[in-house]
Every structure is written in structure tokens, then in C-alpha cells.
Design goal:
Helices cover 32% and strands 22% of the residues. The chain has 512 residues and is α/β, with parallel strands linked by helices. It folds into 3 domains: 165 residues, 3-Layer(aba) Sandwich (Rossmann fold); 70 residues, no CATH class; 234 residues, P-loop containing nucleotide triphosphate hydrolases (Rossmann fold, 3-Layer(aba) Sandwich). It has a 6-stranded mixed β-sheet, with helices on both faces.
Length: 512
Amino acid sequence: MDTPQLPALHVRGVTKYFGDVAALNEADLTVQAAEVHGLIGHNGSGKSTLVKTLAGFHHRDGGEIRVGGRPYSRRVTPHEVRSLGIGFVHQDLALIPGLPIVDNLGFSARGFERTAAGLISWRRQRERSARMLERLGVNTDVRREVSTLTPVEQTLVAIARTLAEHDHTKLLVLDEPTARLPRAEVSRLLDVVRAIVQTGTGVLFISHRLDEVLDLCDRITVFREGTDVADFSAEGQTHGSLIREMIGAEEFARLETTDRRPSTPIDPARPAIAELVGVSTDVLDEVSVALRPGEVTVLTGAVGSGIDQVAEVLFGLTQPTWGAVRLAGRSEDGVTVSSSRRFGSAYVSSQRLTEASYSELSLSDNVLLQSDGRTPTLRIQPRRVQDAVRQLLRQFAVRPPAPEAVFRTLSGGNQQKVLIAKWLRLDPRLLILSEPTQGVDPASRFDLYTLTRAASTRGLAVLWLTTDLDEVPKIADRVLIMFEGRLVHDRSVEESSASDILQTVLTGSPHA
């Protein structure tokens, strides 16, 4: 009689607290060997916290984790994680684009092939690398630079590197592996995953793309508010049934009855201040967007849907491969950050501390260094500068209103107010805000909504990027939804019900 095979992963009653908040609350999850197990849930459901706990980045506060029957210690280290036979491939593949495949594959825990003298044997390393890729159906010269590979080939290189870390990988965690893949390349990756489980490896597949979850997975677990709320066979499930489990019946009803602010009536014939016309990039697929003065346009979508790329093209951070960018009705060839700013565009990145600010400098420095190139900062009198900045901080209810305060010491909400204030002082024509309320407390959220609405009523066009669907009706005049690089929804907020928005974000259609 055959001995039953132990689960690849067994999570039981796992908790993880951040202060008084339970990011994981007695969560359970079991992935069998030779099974693809889907893990789904809305933003903030606990999926990412579980993955980071499995990886040893977070240490659980309670509960039990076993891989192949072997227990995780409470304060597991990355070395212990590898020794248990668990591997991770994240959306950020952590490859080095400028180096060849063979080098990237050598940067695994197992390292490079060596000679008896301890030197790297490049011949043996190339042979081993080729075998690693061939097992995943990739036949290419391992001396190619990673930057020359297609997105799916890069993902397969990352998977090959992870699998090479163990003699037998008991569990492979794929965290949003298809988020940035063109639709045509997704099926190739899914076929590789199916082949991997045939070797006895269990796969935990985390994705916002419900069609892929239904197509690939044997079983599905749903997380909500830090715990598992459902575990079932994928057979017979639909997009609708998964969405109901993800948000719950009460939340679904609440979304349907959420109060909406009165939107600003916009004449569609009114000339746009900025447009994308049939724009394509490596992510976007013939996207057309028109932004009008006095209107707050909310752009939303799942991770990897393309919302970030729309903003980057508008501000000149990414160049389109096809289509046109029009500013005030004029087509612009090769919009750059400089030309965009001269036109009057302002952009606040979601990465407040690393991209949108000088985090170690004072509030005064942050405000003044974000000039439009016309302010002779070397000639400004320091006292007048401080007084002007202090007045601006008070106007935007920044706490404390102290020009000398270091930016990184402020709360998330006050940081965001400073970032918006420093752009609005330049009187822009277009304001692009990426995840402006991320990590912001409720009171500051209300302040940001108020500031943004006030700016739009003065004739400013606002593009508000968010993955927080709850805030869409609170700020939007118009709602745009991206799905897999395509614009699939462009309507006023009155024509956009909460259930339709959610279903469209997850499936690309309100009637899937």
C-alpha cells in the first residue's frame, strides 16, 4: 500500500501582527504535491504578507507552517527556507538585464560550476544553464543578454534559476508571474507550470487574473481580511463565483450603495488638454485617453494592467512605439519630461520617498527644488523663502508647517500634501497623481480629496491613478479601467457601478 504523500505546503492558524493590526489572522492553506493551487484575494487580503512570511522576510506571531512535512522555525532564515525546498518567483524577477543568461543562472544559491582549483568553469556552467532552460522548453544561446529576451523568456529564466537551487523543489511560489506578460505569451508560461507539477512539485499560484486561475489551478483558496474564507476545487467555478468569495456578500452590497459625490458635468466636446491617441508600448495596446480641464479622471486596474504606463507616456518617462501624444491639441513627437513640464504637466510618483521627493532634505528644499526652471533659486532671500514655504504648508494643512522639517519624518499623508503643494505652486495644467492615498490615514485622505477637487474646479485636469476601488466614487468625475494593456472602460462615475468596476478590473468586462 502506497504511503500518502505529504503536502507540499501546510499553513495552519498563522497570524502576523503589525502593531495592533492583524495582517494574517489564523490563516490556513494547504498545497498538495503535484498540484497547482491558486491563492486569490482583493488588495490587502493578506496574500503578500503570507508570501513574505514564507520567504522569511516577516516572522509569524503564531501558527504552524510545514513544507513537505518539515516544520518552519518561528524565525526562519532565507537559508532555512532554501534548505526546505521552497522557491519563489516574484513579479520583480530580480534579473540583471545587462548580463548574459548564464551569469544570471549562476547567481543562485547553488552558484557557478567550478574547477578543482575553485575557478568558474564557464564551459560546464554554459552546459548546465542550457539543460536548466531546456527542461522548461527554452532553447536559446545562454550567452544572450537577458535584456534581449521576451518577457516570458525572462520569467522562465527566473523560474529556472529558482528550481536550480534545490535537488527537488517541493514548493514553487509564483507571485503574479503573468502581471507584465503580453496576453499572447501567457499560455506558454502556464504550459511550463503544468509541466513542473508533473515532476511532483507543488505550485502556489497567486494572480489577479481570474481567467488564468480558473484555467490553470486544481484548487483555489480565497483570502479576505487576513484569513482564508474559502477553499474549493477550481472545477465548475466562474469569475462571478470567485468575485463573490473575494469581497463577500455584505461588502458587495455596500459597494453597490456607496454614496457618490456629485461629479462635475463635463462637456465631451470641450477640447482636451492632454490626449493619448492609439498609443502602444511594450505594455499598452492602442490606448486612447482624453483629459479635460476641470475634470478628475480616475484610472484604475489590477497590478500589471498598464495604468502606470499611461501616466509615464503622458509625462514623457516612456516613449510610445505607436500612436500620438497630444498636448493642448498639438501632436508631440517624442514627449520628454522636460517638454512635458514646460507644457505644464506635473507628476507625483507612488514612490514618495525614492522617486517623488528628496527624502533627506527639508520641506523647504523639496518645495523649491521642484521648480519649473524659471525660479532663480540662488537669488532668493532665505527669510523670504522660509516665509513663503511656511505659508504654503499652512495653506495645505501640512503638520507640522515647519519649512526646516525633514521630509521623511512626516507622516504619509503630510508627505503627500507637500508633494502636491510643490507642484500646484507652479500652476500646472495637468496633474498626474499615482496612488496618492497609499499609506495615508483617513483624515489625510479626505484632505487630499478636497485639495484635488479644489484644484480641478480652477480648471486643472487631474489624472488620479489608484488600485483602491473604494475611493473611485469619492473622487472621480470619470472612470477609466485598464485590463491587460487595453482601455476597457471609459464612462462617467454615474454610469460606473461599483460591481461593474470591480468585475471589469478583474476580468476585463462587467459581464464576464
